[in-house]
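User: Before I run my own analysis I want an independent prediction to cross-check against. Here's the chain; please return only the structure tokens and, at the end, one sentence I can use as a sanity check.
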Amino acid sequence: MPRRHAVVVGAGIGGLTAANALHRRGWSVTVCERAPQLPATGAGIGLAPNALLALKTIGVDDAAHAVGSAVPETMGVRRSDGRWLTRISTANMAARHGMPPIAVPRPALTAALAGALPPEGFRYGTTVTGVDDAAGRPTVRTNAGPDLTADLVVAADGIHSPLRRAHFPGHPGLHYIGETAWRTIVDAPDLPPVDMSETWGRGERFGVTPLSDGRFYLYATAVVPAGTRWADSRDELWRRFGSWHAPIPELLERVSRLDPADVLQNDLYDLAGPLPSLHHGRIAWLGDSAHAMAPNLGQGGCQAIEDAAVLTRLLPAGDSAVGTDQVPVALAAYTAARRDRTDAVRVRARRVGRLGVLRNPLLAAARDLAVRATPAGLALRGLDDLFDGFRLPA
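Assistant: Structure tokens:
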């Protein structure tokens, strides 16, 4: 019998993971990406144990480990003077959760996921302008070529998801969390070993994540009004963080050698509230389009990967004889399985972010004292619901 056809809107990590999972389940998959080629932007991404387990269930975990992944020895939070507030061994994480977290370059991961798919399934330079799912199989309208007909549409069209706005017009949309963020990758093979850390100041944060090839994924945030921009982000980063503890100044010196375009700046938004449903007819939303969250827990991409694994497990195989009316049933089960978990992570990420950017000196000092007083074992157990919360439906 003819294989079922899925259209995936967006070639980010969530969309490409879903496309791989569907392809391995026997579906014919078309990926529509508005960029003229596979997006190469982005810096680094951390893959926590829950995301790695989800990739393993799909069968593409080798993609994450083959792109220069790194496992830091420890990870934790520091003050701007370098004093550790909390520090967790990744070996202890692996013992507790089955595997340690890894850090990978985002463009390399998307390239590896795309490379595991048939190249003829990609339509670059194709913007999806609408999906008509009023009756029967959805019709996907694009700016290029004829309409596409599908049995399933996966809306992985990002934080500003046009499909989310079109199908949930009453939802309040995005919420500015009050911070802008800078991200980049620098080469620094001459530096001594560096732990994975996030440093908290007053209204500012700086994150350092070592990669496996002598490079470092760096990110920084500051509390500013939305839309605030500087002539040169490199100078602004040095002004804000150049006096912080080592190796931040050394890394910023390397940032100063980069092309200004290689330092990305984005204001941070999350979803103002949960969507009433993660599906509509035969359309399923996943990742940022479904539950955009602040990056404070490093779970945005991880939850998108979980979404893809759960969604695909619930759907019938692409070449099975099960009636097509089972697709809406499967999507309803997907909403039931994912909506509460993803919204709980979204809310937690927002709360953690508020702690990290406290500006009042008394409140910041009280925060630091509370974090330092928390035993490492208790802090590790506090991650159980994140790292062990991924479940595939029976």
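Sanity check: The CA atoms of residues 49 and 98 lie 7 Å apart.
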